[in-house]
Amino acid sequence: MSEKPTIILVHGFWGGAAHWSKVILALSRKGFAKLNAVELPLTSLADDAERTRKMVAQQSGPVLLVGHSYGGAVITEAGNMPNVVGLVYIAAFVPDAGESPGSITQSNPPAAIANVVPDSDGYLWIQQDKFHESFCQDLTADEGLIMAVTQKAPLASTFGDNVTAPAWKNKPSWYQISSEDRMINPENQKKMSARINPRKIITLASGHASLASKADEVAALIEEAAGDVT
User: Fold this and answer.
1) Are 15 and 126 in contact (CB under 8 A)?
2) Burial of 189 (0-12, 13-18, 19+ CB in 10 A)
3) I want to staple 193 with a disulfide (CB 3.0 to 4.6 A). Which of 7, 136, 144, 175 is the partner?
4) What are phi and psi of 22, to 5 degrees?
5) How far apart are the first and last CA of the chain?
6) How remote is the C-alpha of 227 from its chain's centroid?
7) Where are the transmembrane segments (predicted)?
8) What is the mean pLDDT of residues 17-30?
């Protein structure tokens, strides 16, 4: 049997690599030894895709890219590298060429869009007192507080950066829809997942942070994708 691919986890807006902590533990228990989580600068799609490409380039074998939220746009942009064997989208944006997360959002704004505010330096924040209800309403209040206080704000301009050459047109993909998502409208998730013709779509009754509230189910989908490309 071929070796398992390296799994590279790509976070989205308002979080860092540690948002994957529960998925990392679940995958480790499943026997995945080659795990990496990118820490994105969240300064532009070009910067974030380049940081991801650099991590992919450091791997000696096949790589499965997994993106949450805006991380889906990043793996879409960075995923055409020859050693990338598949793409897994977790409640994620999947833009086509010439599309951005912002343009997709405009078609069906999410429930919590009013809780996202810019600061005087051009960064976007989720209001701390609204973070739990907006981003991770199915986690505990304590977990929500930690995510709120440690949130990593993106430059607002990043939201409008267009994808150039979508990797999902050339690589097998999988998608997890969060049916109770207040940050990416579930209707947009359904549309994006349908048009990329993924090998599998699963729907979880979760908020946006399904990688934390439904880590075992998310890890199971990643495991299935890894087995399919092995």
Assistant:
1) no
2) buried
3) 175
4) -70, -35
5) 8
6) 20
7) none
8) 98
Q: Provide, for the chain, the percentages of residues in helix, strand and coil under a 3-state DSSP scheme, each rounded to the nearest 5.
A: 45, 20, 40
Give pLDDT tens digits for 61-120.
999 999 999 999 999 999 999 999 999 999 999 999 999 999 999 999 999 999 999 999
At residue 54, the 3 state secondary structure works out as helix
Give the strand order in the sheet containing 63-68: 35-38, 6-10, 63-68, 84-90, 173-178, 200-204
Residue type, 186: P
What is the pLDDT confidence band of residue 36, given thresholds at 50, 70 and 90? Answer: very high
Domains and CATH numbers, the chain: 6-229 (3.40.50.1820)
d(CA 193, CA 216): 21
DSSP string, 121-177: TSBEEE-HHHHHHHH-TTS-HHHHHHHHHT--PPBGGGGGPPPSS-GGGTS-EEEEE
